[in-house]
Amino acid sequence: MERTEIFQEVDEIVDRYKGQITGSVGILQDIQKRYNYLPKEALVHMAKRLDVPLSQLYSLATFYKAFSLRPRGKHLISVCMGTACHVRGAPRIADEIQRRLNIKVGQTTEDNKFTFELVNCLGCCAIGPVMVIDGKYYEHMTVRKINPILRKYETG
């Protein structure tokens, strides 16, 4: 994607928020939704448009875990590592996902289909261990359940 195209898209997003600094988080969310991460060029242009230091936007982007400064895969996989999930086998689930996708935590597959992350708690301890893909919760996860679930996302 060319820089001018990124600038035009960022301009459209900023304009929806009337160029107000109070819309910063919303603007970042919309940029992330568009690119699946926050490209550096988009942040630089956004800072110029809002007349704020780039460091201020970078602080927001690194404070909230929902934002990523690196490209993410089409599908985001999260495994809960909270205490209840951990004692019920979440580490085995995480190990199997890493083995199956040939990536480590925080990485994206070569084909850009999957990004894998661990989270501290998803707040649904009774159904743990829990895996979430693109906001869909998979409860009482076992190693055996992983392959059929991932195949749906690989082919769909």
Characterization of this structure:
The chain has 156 residues and is α+β, with helices and mostly antiparallel strands. The protein has two domains: 3-63; 75-155, Glutaredoxin (3-Layer(aba) Sandwich). The chain is built from seven helices and four strands; from the N terminus they run H-H-H-H-E-H-H-E-E-E-H. Strand 3 and strand 4 form a beta hairpin. The radius of gyration is 18 Å and the shape is elongated. The chain starts with a helix and ends with a helix. 25% of the residues are buried. The mean pLDDT is 94.
What attributes does this structure have?
about 160 residues; Glutaredoxin; 2 domains; 4-stranded mixed beta sheet; 4 strands; about 50% helix
CATH homologous superfamily of the largest domain - what is it? Glutaredoxin
Query: Which second-level CATH architecture of the largest domain applies?
Result: 3-Layer(aba) Sandwich
Low-confidence stretches: none
Distinct helical segment count: 7
Structural class: alpha+beta
**Range of strand content:** 5-15%
Amino- and carboxy-terminal Cα gap: 25 Å
Helix content: 40-55%
Gross geometry: elongated
In total, how many beta strands? 4
CATH fold node name of the largest domain: Glutaredoxin
Largest sheet: 4 strands, mixed
Tally of discrete structural domains: 2
The CATH class of the largest domain, by name, is Alpha Beta
